[in-house]
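Recall the central idea of this unit: under ordinary conditions, the amino acid sequence of a chain determines the structure it adopts. In this exercise we apply that idea directly, starting from the sequence alone.
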Amino acid sequence: MEGEPLFPVAVKDAAFTPPDAPTYYLLAANGLFVERRTPLFTASVPVEAGVPGLRPHDAHLALHLPRLPRSL
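Accordingly, the structure predicted from this sequence is:
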């Protein structure tokens, strides 16, 4: 990997506990959020642009089948 993500990324499943970090990304069933905790506030905001430090990924499909004969 070219670099580490700037902030941890957590998955909100049944066993979720918040990481011990003031800022982290949270992947939930309804999207990606950034969570920020300070002495003054705690905020969770939806993220539209992705996680800094991670590489992009595209949806794709690759079939692993032999070629079909033309006679079909």
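The mean pLDDT is 89.
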